[in-house]
Specification:
Blueprint (H helix, E strand, L loop, with lengths): L33 H18 E3 L5 E3 L18 E3 L5 E4 L9 E2 L5 E16 L2 E12 H5 L3 E2 L8 H6 L11 H7 L3 E2 L12 E5 L24 E13 L5
Antiparallel strand pairs: 1-2, 3-4, 4-10, 5-9, 6-7, 6-8, 6-11, 10-11
Length: 244
């Protein structure tokens, strides 16, 4: 599967990320080989699933290290999950799936609300885990608005022409688009309070890998090479897209 990248403006410091949060006194982090990065992604995803849970609305939350209030919450790792051939992980929340809902076709127009974070899985101090987390989109705690066909999901011919690149793989995150087809849209109005359906975790090899990608000034100034995406979302509507 071709690696596909969507993006952000490149941050010059990202490829020299440090072994400590304090960059002033830390050595340069050496970028691993692609095969090793893929291993790091998988290991970090496993830890992430053990260290996080769904709250009542379906938002992903990290277990507290100072409070016992969330001790009875179920780890994400305890939920049934699907793993696609490209390493993308799908986890659905019980009682949060539409019945019957509407099947999502690959080219449907979507109305979607999500909180999405990206991480770089690194091996520092002999520990592999997600670091340098960056919010990619935050419709729930940020804008509060449902998105319509965000470019990482679908770009129009005009959008590609305006940006002088007609390769959809330059914009869209294929692992996310493929995984969405394992869910159904809830077919509710935009004003409905979100009840998030679950998560899609797209490892770097199914997202950006190390290829060129669309850089949008509206997104965080972070280099998205090697990064894993965690999409926490609800599809409000799925609409058959008219043929061009």
């Amino acid at each position: 599967m071709k690696k596909i990248l969507f993006g952000f403006a490149v941050c010059a410091l990202a490829l020299q990320s440090c072994k400590k949060d304090n960059a002033d006194d830390a050595p340069v982090y050496t970028e691993p080989t692609i095969d090793v990065q893929n291993q790091y992604d998988d290991q970090a995803i496993t830890k992430f699933l053990d260290n996080n849970y769904f709250d009542a609305q379906g938002n992903v939350k990290a277990f507290s290290t100072t409070s016992a209030d969330d001790d009875n919450e179920a780890k994400l790792s305890t939920y049934p999950k699907e793993t696609l051939s490209n390493g993308t992980i799908i986890i659905k929340r019980a009682n949060a799936q539409p019945d019957p809902g509407k099947t999502i076709a690959p080219t449907d127009s979507l109305r979607i609300m999500s909180t999405t974070t990206t991480y770089w899985a690194t091996n520092e101090d002999n520990e592999v885990k997600f670091r340098y987390g960056t919010v990619f989109s935050n419709d729930i705690f940020g804008s509060g608005n449902v998105q319509v066909d965000p470019p990482y999901y679908y770009v129009t011919e005009k959008f590609m022409a305006d940006n002088n690149n007609t390769d959809r793989n330059f914009y869209q995150i294929e692992g996310f688009t493929e995984a969405l087809q394992h869910f159904k849209s809830t077919e509710v109005d935009d004003s409905t309070t979100p009840n998030l359906q679950g998560i899609i975790i797209v490892p770097s090899r199914a997202a950006f890998a190390r290829d060129k990608y669309y850089q949008a000034s509206t997104y965080p100034l972070v280099d998205m090479r090697n990064r894993t995406f965690v999409f926490n979302f609800q599809v409000y509507k799925s609409i058959t897209r008219p043929k061009p």
